[in-house]
Amino acid sequence: xxxxxxxxxxxxxxxxxxxxxxxxxxxxxxxxxxxxxxxxxxxxxxxxxxxxxxxxxxxxxxxxxxxxxxxxxxxxxxxxxxxxxxxxxxxxxxxxxxxxxxxxxxxxxxxxxxxxxxxxxxxxxxxxxxxxxxxxxxxxxxxxxxxxxxxxxxxxxxxxxxxxxxxxxxxxxxxxxxxxxxxxxxxxxxxxxxxxxxxxxxxxxxxxxxxxxxxxxxxxxxxxxxxxxxxxxxxxxxxxxxxxxxxxxxxxxxxxxxxxxxxxxxxxxxxxxxxxxxxxxxxxxxxxxxxxxxxxxxxxxxxxxxxxxxxxxxxxxxxxxxxxxxxxxxxxxxxxxxxxxxxxxxxxxxxxxxxxxxxxxxxxxxxxxxxxxxxxxxxxxxxxxxxxxxxxxxxxxxxxxxxxxxxxxxxxxxxxxxxxxxxxxxxxxxxxxxxxxxxxxxxxxxxxxxxxxxxxxxxxxxxxxxxxxxxxxxxxxxxxxxxxxxxxxxxxxxxxxxxxxxxxxxxxxxxxxxxxxxxxxxxxxxxxxxxxxxxxxxxxxxxxxxxxxxxxxxxxxxxxxxxxxxxxxxxxxxxxxxxxxxxxxxxxxxxxxxxxxxxxxxxxxxxxxxxxxxxxxxxxxxxx
Length: 624
Known about the structure:
Strand content: over 45%
Helix content: under 10%
Structural class: mainly beta
CATH class: Mainly Beta
Largest sheet: 22 strands, antiparallel, barrel
Number of domains: 1
Number of helices: 6
Shape: globular
Radius of gyration: 24 Å
Distance between the termini: 14 Å
């Protein structure tokens, strides 16, 4: 059996998210890595299901199998997490609810890196709570001679069809070709006499690269993502909600890179075109939004001396929207940064970054960041501090502002929003107890100002209220002056042979979070995170048999909405199981998977009922 993350766990491989040639231990940051081998083993059928069980990450799902989910890191809001694919920003300009719509198939992914804490000095706005970085095989800097592929198909409860396929062909000095397909669709569980929790989710991606000369390389990707799903109570608590939603997304990306004797230069270009159609109720017309996002990025890394590296870069992106209820808008964003990594003595690592960032929404900002690590034997002490910023997205600023009439209880945008700003600090300790067994602990504090959230507000207190019910109350987007979030993260990772040819790969994490706001304001999302979160997964293998279990236990504030008969329980636990038996030299696999093993009835978002127990079974075929 392959050894999932054996190298990454021992901190011997450079972390792409760091931008400089550093291992995880050298960055001074708390970073988790999920490899392609992990992804193949775990009982997950989408990217957000994979993230759900990474320590320190809270995924607030609205539907199963990746229909839609908000990703929260260290108590952030869903808009305060930055998503990258091969180094390029992918956050949706319409709303942070769509940030998890990642147009890349699971079969193309080489690894997923999750950096907790701020990274605005490296990547710009939105990287407040952390960064989720997906690195694919085709865009990896080093490619060994490779020829591999995998096809997997499963059927199950409620008409489920879940299929994925992908392959990669690469030569170090020639072509590299990769691609993948992911399909999850089902009629879904009944919600009432007429509605079902149905979904139809499809992602396809294709990558092509070529080594032009020994120093020059070009890689390109095209990807498409189509989602149609029931969206009842995803965004509202109205009894009239019979929502359906369809999103389409196309992503094009190209990288030209040059490898010098002491440095590397990369030019990345990306273009995303997406469309969202949201139908609240068949009695009303759908809201239709079209988004365009163009991104250009230049990055140069240079090794100045042993133990001393420098990184320089710049970025420019333009966002645009054409919307039936938010209007037509465009924004320009520019940024330039410098970062340095210095190892003044063996075991001591210092990293500093400074970014100048300009945006049409908030003007010019300086975003500094510093981190350190010190390794002494089996112990590594690390710490980091940094500033981050995020401007309101088009939904937060303009939702419902172009409608002729907005009924009471609806979300309402605020064009006058200020940008969010935050300082974050952390201190951690890593301990390699014995080979293959590591403990990581981190304490952190984030102080945010002018944070954005939806606050219940009477129409008479809203400046632009010509299209409002004068007696109504709205969830009006406002800046809340201060919010302090503090917490603790603890992780245990084990990679052990247990005897009798059994191998165990396990990862468990516990996160404690506490947010405090001194203002007497009732907000919708800012403190909508778990207070206690225990996540983990374990994979056992022996010969042809593979068994994997992942799960979580969450404690959060209870809530209820009598109008829609919905209740958010103060705690729940959910577990998933996958078994595989391999034949024909590990080429053919017989698969059995159970999602929500104990059939727990739960919700992450009030009103959005998550699926109960789903059985599924099928076959896989792989080759190398």
